Amino acid sequence: MKRTHIPPNSTFYNKFIPVILIVMAIMTAIFILVAAGILLGFVPFR
Amino acid sequence: MSLNNVLPFVSTLIMVSFTVFVLQRYAVRRSPHFLFWGIGLAMFGAGSFAEAYLAIAWNKWVFFIWYLFGAALNAGWIGQGTVYLLSRKKWVHVLTAILVLGSIITTVLMLQIMPKLDESQFTPTISIGEQYRFIMPSVQDGATVRLSTPFFNIYGLITLVGGALWSAFLFWRKRVLPNRVLGNVLIAAGALSIGFASTLTRLGYGSLLYIGELLAAILMFAGFLTAASPQPDEIPVASATAPAGD
């Protein structure tokens, strides 16, 4: 049965995507911490 | 009419198209994740339209729509769609009940502060995201509704961005369905751009808010269309968690 696969030699999928996933995961964690900080009063809430 | 007057209307048009596209899918497939995405996107669109209106003139009920749907609720509802996509277990229904109850409470709290809005502080030349804190009373003065906003936004961030990143990672790890990898990356990037725009607004760069929201609308819609696009030899991958666009 056929599948649509990620091309094995694709720089975009082999290099760029993993980096962007890690970067966005870190950014998400930072945003969550900032929002939690606002909620808990650690970050000034104007 | 300046660019900042036009951008929110463009965002609104994109979000309306996105909402119609998603709700059409719900009408065909009856999957709850399409319904929650559709409701959340409709809230986003209503918030964008309210923002566009408030860049021209003041209306307290438009402000009500902007804060309730645009600032508070939409991320949580879109994120709940992703939760339904990733899991069909009973605890998801419990989360839905909490979301609905929280949304009702937030609506009541918002209605309670409506008579306390200080519309004399309103200036149409400044984005509503920059000036809403001067129009609404502080938490200490009774605007408890402002405390509820971070809950919805944290929940939306975790579920929408986290869900999209997780789905992208699963398909990337299995080396299948590159359209869904890319689509989910675009959706996550779009949702994060709203977070960036909101944070920059808080730091005093409110002029970037509208372009950030437009970017978010474009990226998320493009991501959804990319993930949903059929591939030539595509088959369902039962073992992988279904991403956006399923």
Structure characterization notes:
The complex is a heterodimer of chains A (46) and B (246). Helix content of chain A is 65%, strand content 0%. Chain A is mainly α and 46 residues long. Chain A is rod-shaped. The relative contact order of chain A is 0.08. The model of chain A has no long low-confidence stretch (mean pLDDT 84). Chain B is an all-alpha fold. Helix content of chain B is 75%, strand content 0%. In chain B, helix 2 packs antiparallel against helix 3 and helix 3 runs antiparallel to helix 4. Chain B starts with a helix and ends in an 18-residue tail after the last helix. The chains are: A mainly alpha (46), B mainly alpha (246). Chains A and B meet through helix 1 of A and helix 6 and helix 7 of B.
Summed up, what is this model?
The complex is a heterodimer of chains A (about 45) and B (about 250). Chain A has one helix at about 10-40.
